[in-house]
């Protein structure tokens, strides 16, 4: 079971040993996926929910002309599709954006969590609420933020989300996503994404080394993005 998930859930509150043990048992089936392979197909009726153990996955919709819209980036510790437990069919797909290890948690186990572990159920409910809040922020980015602000906002968000699961050193983290994938998330061309990242580098708001991003002045990047971390915070929990 992903330690990253436990770090997330412990932001909501302590996880009891019985709850932890059940999660370990429920998430014991691991599957490897290569980049660009589908983890869950749109229109399918899965009997499992998928937990990212390693790598980055994406929630997406494929359009009739062959293009795609990425609706969410899923990081280690993220459930991609807890809501599939309640849906008749998937109205979107889940794709591996990098090499991924996915734990598949049977819906029967999800149902048992809701019946046996009310505190754990609330923690997972909080996790889905944060997922919905991230989606709303992305909608604002696509509708109202400039491309420059979109990139700055996403890099702030990734810093905080990856920090929550222990994947940030100082203010540096690995972002193993291509410029095409970043563009597919915000309706931008790869060329435009590249220009915005160059502008952020010229402004000394980010330093990039291959797949690694360093933010020299977090507050300055937040100001450039108009970033308010409230949507990533849990009621009563620590603030970013």
Helix content: 40-55%
Using the coordinates shown, work out and report the CATH topology of the largest domain.
Answer: Jelly Rolls
What sort of overall outline do the alpha carbons produce when their principal axes are compared?
globular
Could you give the distance between the termini? 26 Å
Give the number of helices. 8
Query: What share of the residues does DSSP label as strand, in percent?
Result: 15-25%
**Can you say what the CATH homologous superfamily of the largest domain is?**
Jelly Rolls
Can you walk through the features of this model?
There is one protein chain. The chain is of the alpha+beta class and 240 residues long. The chain has 2 domains: 3-118, Jelly Rolls (Sandwich), CATH 2.60.120.10; 134-232, Arc Repressor Mutant, subunit A. The protein is built from 8 helices and 10 strands. It is globular and about 55 Å long. The mean pLDDT is 94.
Task: Describe how the helices and strands are arranged.
Elements: H1 3-12, H2 17-26, E1 30-33, E2 38-40, E3 48-54, E4 57-62, E5 68-74, E6 93-96, E7 100-106, H3 107-116, H4 118-144, H5 147-164, E8 172-174, H6 179-186, H7 190-202, E9 207-209, E10 212-214, H8 218-225
Antiparallel strand pairs: 1-7, 2-6, 3-7, 4-5, 4-6, 8-10, 9-10
Briefly summarize what is shown.
This protein is α+β, with helices and mostly antiparallel strands and 240 residues long. It contains eight helices and ten strands.
List keywords for this structure.
three-stranded antiparallel sheet, Jelly Rolls, 10 strands, four-stranded antiparallel sheet, 240 residues, Arc Repressor Mutant, subunit A, globular, alpha+beta
């Amino acid at each position: 079971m992903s330690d990253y998930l436990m770090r997330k859930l412990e932001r909501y509150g302590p996880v009891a040993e019985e709850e932890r043990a059940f999660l370990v048992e429920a998430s014991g089936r691991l599957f490897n996926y290569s980049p660009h392979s589908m983890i869950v197909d749109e229109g399918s009726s899965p009997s499992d929910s998928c937990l990212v153990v390693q790598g980055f996955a994406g929630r997406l919709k494929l359009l009739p002309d062959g293009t795609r819209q990425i609706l969410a980036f899923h990081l280690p510790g993220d459930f991609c599709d807890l809501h599939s437990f309640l849906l008749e069919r998937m109205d979107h797909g889940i794709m591996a954006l990098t090499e991924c290890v996915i734990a598949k948690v049977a819906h029967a186990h999800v149902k048992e969590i809701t019946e046996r572990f009310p505190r754990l159920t609330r923690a997972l409910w909080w996790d889905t609420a944060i997922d919905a809040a991230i989606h709303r922020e992305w909608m604002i980015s696509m509708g109202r933020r400039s491309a420059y602000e979109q990139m700055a906002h996403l890099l702030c968000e990734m810093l905080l989300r990856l920090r929550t699961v222990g994947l940030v050193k100082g203010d540096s983290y690995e972002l193993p996503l291509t410029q095409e994938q970043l563009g597919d998330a915000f309706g931008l061309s790869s060329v435009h994404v590249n220009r915005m990242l160059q502008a952020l580098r010229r402004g000394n708001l980010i330093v990039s080394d291959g797949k690694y991003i360093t933010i020299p002045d977090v507050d300055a990047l937040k100001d450039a993005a108009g970033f308010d971390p409230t949507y990533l915070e849990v009621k009563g929990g620590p603030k970013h």
